Amino acid sequence: MAPPVCYLQRDGVSIAYQVVGDEPVDLLFIPGAISHLALEWESPYWRRWCDRIVSFARLIRLDKRGTGLSDRPGGPYSSEERMEDARAVLDAVGVQRAHVLGTSEGGPLAILLAVSYPERVQSLVLCGTQACFHRAPGYPWGFNRARISELVQGINSSWGQRAFAEFWAPRGDEQFAEWWAGYQRAGASPADATMMFETAFKADARPLLHEIKAPTLVLHRIGDRVVDGEAARYLAGHIPGARFVELAGDDHVLWVGDVEPLCSEIEMFLTGSKPRRRSFWPAGLTDREVEVLRLLAEGHTKKEISAALFISPRTAHAHVVNIYRKIGVRTRASAAMYAVAHGLAEVRADTGHQIDRTVD
Asked: Is 177 part of any domain?
């Protein structure tokens, strides 16, 4: 079950936020252009990333003003306004100092927070982002005016369609593409999305980079279609003492694709400890088969499993057949016992039902 969504009031605007987990390390997550605190829990991609993050950190997240469950007053919204909203979330949660993770359009906001309130930012993680999204003298890696105009027109006319999912997260499957289209529509209207992207394209955090005092980690997926690798290197190279790490993958959305290398880098940076990794699932089970087995152990039907994982009933049935074959069982009860015996689920004493204990 997802944690409750809370609200704070700042300048007459309601800002939605949520706290996930109870680890002693506090991580404030500033998302990209859109987010939706409720709908993200419907995505197995999001849940998997979130489960991995909260295995070592308490995740504090928000829908920025104009998006998701937060109020949508007339924009455009300035970087300073949205940065102050993020700071206000820390106040509402009672956190004086936190690690800050900024991705995509949230990267420059995280930079602004680190410079404006250095006493509040313990460290900075910038993933899939750049200091400036438009081209400028001495900075050839942003979008030029023609490309920005093309993108803005596309957002205004085609917002909420599958093509956006294929561009931002090419490793997402068909079910993810359908979900992402609805996620966009819920996250912002076409007009609001157009306005926010226009604002993002104008932002330029380059003058702030040398002022960052917090230890900084810059992560970049080599095949990211939105952020050029050289722009990511520029970002790291102009922040004093920043560490730059390139990762395999081509998804701009940080919680899609192979999240383990990304999350491991974040965990090591925040905690100073090498992550404990599970190298293989038992019986050669795949990640998706473990998800299906977990739901089987919880008593879900194949129809419910297909809905929960955004896969077809036929695919869900095929996964069940493969699971039974791999672990050598013929019944759901035997599969549930196997899941418990191998630490993939456990029996909850008050109900006798299996519950998930899998992080990744």
From this structure: no
Radius of gyration of the chain (CA): 21
For 290, how many CA atoms within 13 A lie in the half-sphere containing its CB?
21
Amino acid sitting at position 197: F
Helix (H) or strand (E) holding 246: strand 243-247
Owning domain of residue 84: 6-141+199-271
> Is the CB of residue 340 less than 8 Å from the CB of residue 296?
no
Q: What angle do CA 94, 100, 105 make, to 5 degrees?
A: 120
Q: Are 225 and 250 in contact (CB under 8 A)?
A: yes
Same domain, 244 and 265: yes
Write out pLDDT tens, residues 2-57.
899 999 999 999 999 999 999 999 999 999 999 999 999 988 889 889 989 999 99
Taking the mean position of all CA atoms in its chain, how far away is CA 90? 19
Query: β-strands 216-221, 243-247: how paired?
Result: parallel
Q: Are residues 36 and 136 in the same domain?
A: yes
pTM beyond cutoff 0.85: no
Alpha carbon 288 to chain centroid, angstroms:
19
Other CB atoms within a 10 A radius of the CB of residue 174 amount to 13
